Amino acid sequence: MSNAELARRIAEESDGFAPPAELVRRLAGVTVRHLMPDDWQASDLAVAAAGKLLADTGIATSDVDMLMFAAASQDMAEPATAHIVAAKLGLACPVLDVKNACNSVLNAIELADALIAAGRYRRILIACGESPSRAIRWRVNGLAQYLSAFAGYTLSDAGAALLLEAGPAGPADPGVLACAFTADSTAWDVGTLPGGGSAHPRDVESTYFHIDGRKLRRAFEALGPALPLDLLRRLGLRWQDFAVVAVHQVATDYLEVLRSTLDIPADRLVITLPSHGNVASASLPLQLVRAREEGRCGPGDLVALLGLAGGVSLGMAVIRL
Fold first, then answer.
1. H/E element holding 96?
2. How many CB atoms lie within 10 A of CB 188?
């Protein structure tokens, strides 16, 4: 859906309000967003990605020891969406949901790595289905409500899947080398999708995004650059050592501020925001897929995954492919 199509739909469903067609591009850098079919759920996005991954790797469903559904989205409050994904894929293994806004997949990588390292499981499938289009406000009563719901107009639906499995643990072997996370949970109310829980069980207004973009940005800036830079120092690495540095992308101007603050070389980034929008926790896997398709990374290369999420949290994983 282009910005023009987005503005047209809002105008058609609203009473006398028509947003500027290119405001989303000017404020966030997004020109296109992708919406799943009306009869799809978050689980269907995860199933499509996971099914493709299993087919491409030749791994049978019986060889998957655990499934993690990792996403900000979910099919319903109960049961865990992982059960729905497992049923659709035909899996018969333990399952669980991992949920931490846009860092859900990144947190799942750390958790899966720890469980495999502890010898609890050999092969863990992480499946992600992000369906933020279901929380987009199409009927708008004016500019103030439009701006309050603005973050929703930058978001896209997407599915992603990753497979982690036990293997050699030498310094040159593929695998997760290190992870680090931090959070400032006092800023949890800066960006919310309030519906679906005990706080607002039946309030229709709570089914839309409510995000103060300026406050959210200040909350991330308050966390500072220490976490990723400390992790690099601990590993004895520089940004130049990575084939790709995948960074969660919410707005092009903030991506540049973050890149400049951390001194990440621009040629290490994979820019997906303009043509894909903000795909929540599917953002980092999407960037890795694009980089692999473009021949920018492959087996043996180092990649960094840098995640930002509402709540707010900051995380980073260093992986050798």
1. strand 95-98
2. 15
CATH topology of domain 175-320: Peroxisomal Thiolase; Chain A, domain 1 (3.40.47)
98-107 tens-digit pLDDT: 999 999 999 9
Position 238, amino acid: R
The predicted structure's pLDDT at residue 282: 98
- For the record, the structure tokens of 66 come out as 């655990």
CA atoms within 13 A on the CB side of 13: 12
Burial code (b: 16+ CB inside 10 Å, e: under 16) for 120-151 equals ebebbbbbbbbbbbbbbbbebeeeeebbbbbb
Cα atoms in the Cβ-side hemisphere of radius 13 Å centred on 3: 18
Q: Please tell me the distance from the alpha carbon of residue 148 to that of residue 15, in angstroms, as a whole number.
A: 17
Mapping DSSP to helix (H, G, I), strand (E, B) and coil, where does residue 39 land? coil
pTM: 0.94
In the chain, the amino acid numbered 32 is V
For residue 292, the SS3 value is helix
Q: Do the strands 313-320 and 175-183 form a parallel or antiparallel pair, or are they unpaired?
A: antiparallel
* 68 and 112 Cβ atoms separated by less than 8 Å: yes
Alpha-helical (H) ranges within the chain are 3-13, 23-28, 42-57, 81-89, 104-117, 143-148, 213-223, 226-235, 252-262, 273-276, 283-293
Q: What is the pLDDT of residues 36-85, one digit of tens each?
A: 999 999 999 999 999 999 999 999 999 999 999 999 999 999 999 999 99
Residue 245 CA to residue 280 CA, distance in Å, equals: 17
| Beta strands at 66-70 and 95-98: parallel, antiparallel or unpaired | parallel
Beta bridge partners of 210: 192
Domain edges within the chain:
175-320
Q: Does residue 291 contact residue 243 with C-beta atoms inside 8 Å?
A: yes
